[in-house]
Amino acid sequence: MFRILKQSLKTGVITETPPDLADAELERIGVELRRTIEARLGRSLAIRQVDAGSCNACELEIHALNNAYYDVERFGVRFVASPRHADALLVTGPVSRHMEMALRRTWRATPAPKFVIAAGSCACTGGEFGVSYASCGAVENVIPVDVKIPGCPPSPLDLLKGLLGALRV
Amino acid sequence: MTGAERIRRFDWLSEYLARLEDEHVIAQHGDALALPPAHRLELDPEDWAPAAKVAAGMGLRHAGLWADCLDDAASTEEGPCIRVQACLEYGGDYLVLQTEVPMSRPLLASQATSYPGVARLERHAHDLTGLELTGQPDGRRWTRHQAWPEDRFPLRSDFPRAGETPGRTPADADYAFTRVQGTGVYEIPVGPVHAGIIEPGHFRFHAMGEDVLQLEERLGYVHKGIEKLAVGRDPAALARLAGRLSGDSSVAHAWAACQAMERATDCIVPPRALALRGLMAERERIANHLGDIGAICNDVGFAFAQVQCARLRELWQRRSLALFGHRLMMDAVVPGGVACDLTDKAIEELQRDHAQMKVAIEPVFDVVEDHPSLDDRLMSTGVLSEADARQLGCTGYVGKASGQGFDLRRDTPYAPYDAVAMDAPLMTEGDVAARVTVRMAEVRNSLRWMDRLLKVLPGGALAVDLPPAEEGAMGLGAIDGWRGEILCFVRFGADGRIARYFPRDPSWFTWPALERLILGNIVPDFPVCNKSVNGSYSGEDL
């Protein structure tokens, strides 16, 4: 019990550690992001992430946005479980034809005003997979896209920058 | 490996052949060494199912099955055919069974009656090549949804890569899920778009109260036509594609594809390149295990471990970016070698890093291993029995937590694991807690192994040019990825271009395991059970 308490106390300190000095850029971007979110969306940006055919690399980096280093929630950006709660869709992958209808339905289920961010090279251009019998290619071939964040996969910092771009649309 | 060891290695094969003879199965050795290090046997189509039955009786593990359409202009003399290959493993030795059926009448008896784990591989082979599997216990489509019609097969040469049915693809609405009926039984459809930041797939639960009576998976949503896209690529482009098969296993899949191509062309890869590949593969393993251990704990509301593991994983990935040029080490493995080098300074940095990681994980793992609220949720949850794991052919942490100790790095050691040995943990409980424990042991083993490797890191070249491939040359790659055994089959066509690429991710066998281990658990425990297995959607949908 004592051991666990000790660990938990230690944890508390670690989770609150602010980003490294090397991450000054993150701070700058993050703060700017918060200002924009406050101005446009009443302090919060609710994002529904949709994997429309990605290889899962983009998902790993989007996950990283929530780790203690980037801690994207402190800027008001939150990932939600339903498109009905979302301000924005963050779509990854080339849109596989098997996901085409699911993506359209998810987009329809998102209340307006809404915007769509295509994250990753595949979502932006079709990437390594392009258009084929199994793939519709870029997300904009299926639903309207407002912002593109390229990268294979985009780094968490790229994603933050892209989100900022999204709010300036 | 010495010659004497090599002979001892296949000591079971004569017994298998004798049993085949008892069943009147005629196995032609032909070019038995066409797919080294595997031994290849050619069978008549009618002997296909009996050969599997005999193998199952002897306890061989089925490591996967794939079909290869030989139907281009310059194919076989006897007209277009479908060549089917099945890979079996016993004691670390691989045996490839091969048969051919005419494309005009592509009938073959199913091996899934003896090996239920390969049922979906067979359904996949049918959907993409038109191979008809008689006696298949499950005749429904698998990889195909509605993107192409039932009577068209994308891997045949007359099927255009761009497809034949333009316009919108409808949802796959009429898939016949198995129904459970009775008073109080209800269905829960989940997906394809999930609530978390994860890949898409559909799960159909039948539950009564909170208890899961049945779970049926419906995957194929992220089918991107990878096998078709590979056709006509040059080796470098195939490695790039393989690295994007499943982003979390980028190194392992790219390595498997390169290994297959290197074996097909008798390419001698420089020792330093192989050592660096091993180093990257273990880095990939540690990154994924850290992420998953945290996520499993988070799924039962224990955020402490999630925050800690995510922090360590991020540091680890930043180091990968600094030293290997990419946070997930994509495109670092290339045909003939690797694309990046480690300076002496970088090696020192890595050694310091490993030492720090060893210190950093211990307090976290110590709590994960022994915390009452975690024990309460993870122990006896999602039990995969040893019999089920064996029957399905699970490898990796799912197999190792359920008594299946097979680890390629130890049992069929390839360079650099032949020179620097790797331990593999083994447990028999088969629950979520066991899978977590196995993963933690693998992290510790890999850290120790990497330090030993760095001490004997060979010098020399980083890559050689891949020799030109002869038309028809085949190669079988087998790499231990972080999820388990990855197989990869490559056949070259004309001009050194790829004619067939089939990567077999370990998820083919762990997804069916999830359907079994969830039974009797409560619906709210599904996320933690799923995460403890963490099958790849993209790696299986292809």
Classify the oligomer.
Answer: heterodimer
Give the terminus-to-terminus CA distance of chain A: 52 Å
Under CATH, the homologous superfamily of the largest domain in chain B reads Cytochrome-c3 Hydrogenase, chain B
User: What is the CATH class of the largest domain in chain B?
Assistant: Mainly Alpha
Secondary-structure class of chain A: alpha/beta
Kindly state the percentage of residues in helix of chain A: 25-40%
Give me the CATH fold name of chain A: Rossmann fold
Number of helices of chain A: 6
Overall form of chain B = globular
Poorly predicted segments of chain B: 1-7
The third-level CATH topology of the largest domain in chain B is: Cytochrome-c3 Hydrogenase, chain B
**Which geometry of chain A do the CA atoms define?**
globular
Give the largest chain-chain interface (CB within 8 Å).
A-B, 56 and 63 residues
Distance between the termini of chain B: 34 Å
Number of domains of chain A: 1
SSE arrangement:
The complex is a heterodimer of chains A (169) and B (542).
Chain A: H1 2-15, H2 24-41, E1 45-51, H3 57-64, E2 77-79, E3 88-92, H4 100-109, E4 115-119, H5 121-125, E5 147-149, H6 156-167
Chain B: H1 3-9, H2 13-22, E1 27-28, E2 39-43, H3 48-58, E3 61-70, E4 81-90, E5 93-102, E6 107-109, H4 119-129, E7 132-134, E8 185-190, E9 202-208, E10 211-218, H5 226-230, H6 235-242, H7 250-264, H8 271-299, H9 303-324, E11 333-334, E12 337-338, H10 344-369, H11 372-378, H12 386-392, H13 396-400, H14 408-411, H15 432-455, E13 474-481, E14 484-492, E15 498-504, H16 507-517, H17 526-533, H18 537-541
Parallel strand pairs in B: 2-5, 6-7
Antiparallel strand pairs in B: 1-2, 3-4, 4-5, 8-9, 9-10, 11-12, 13-14, 14-15
Helix pairs in contact in B: 6-7, 7-8, 8-9, 8-15, 8-17, 9-10, 10-15
Descriptive account of the structure:
The complex is a heterodimer of chains A (169) and B (542). Chain A contains 6 helices and 5 strands; from the N terminus they run H-H-E-H-E-E-H-E-H-E-H. Chain A is an alpha/beta fold. In chain A, helix 2 (24-41) runs parallel beside helix 6. Chain B is of the alpha+beta class. Chain B is 40% helix and 17% strand. Chain B is built from 18 helices and 15 strands. Chain B has helices at residues 3-9, 13-22, 48-58, 119-129, 226-230, 235-242, 250-264, 271-299, 303-324, 344-369, 372-378, 386-392, 396-400, 408-411, 432-455, 507-517, 526-533, 537-541; strands spanning 27-28, 39-43, 61-70, 81-90, 93-102, 107-109, 132-134, 185-190, 202-208, 211-218, 333-334, 337-338, 474-481, 484-492, 498-504. In chain B, the strands form 5 sheets. A 5-stranded mixed sheet of chain B has the order 1-2-5-4-3. Chain B has a 3-stranded antiparallel sheet with strand order 8-9-10. The two termini of chain B are 34 Å apart. The interface between A and B is large, with 56 and 63 residues.
